[in-house]
Amino acid sequence: IVKHSSPTLYRSWLEKTKQQFKPYSAEENFIFINAWNEWGEGSYLEPDQHYGDQYLTALKSVFTDSNN
User: Fold this and answer.
1) What separation, in Å, do the N-terminal and C-terminal C-alpha atoms of the chain show?
2) Is pLDDT at 61 greater than 90 in this prediction?
3) pTM, two decimal places
4) Are 62 and 13 a contacting pair, CB within 8 Å?
């Protein structure tokens, strides 16, 4: 169980993960996010009533921001 999760903490985690990432090869350069849209497990990135699309916005910003 993840407590106190927020789009801000998620973005921070993504930024650190991206900075530390070393691809296996040019063709295999994936970062996987566990349990994408697994509602039953509480891990999802779809918009919800509490945060709207802030998790998706954080994801997009980390991977489209040229400063990261």
Assistant:
1) 29
2) yes
3) 0.75
4) no
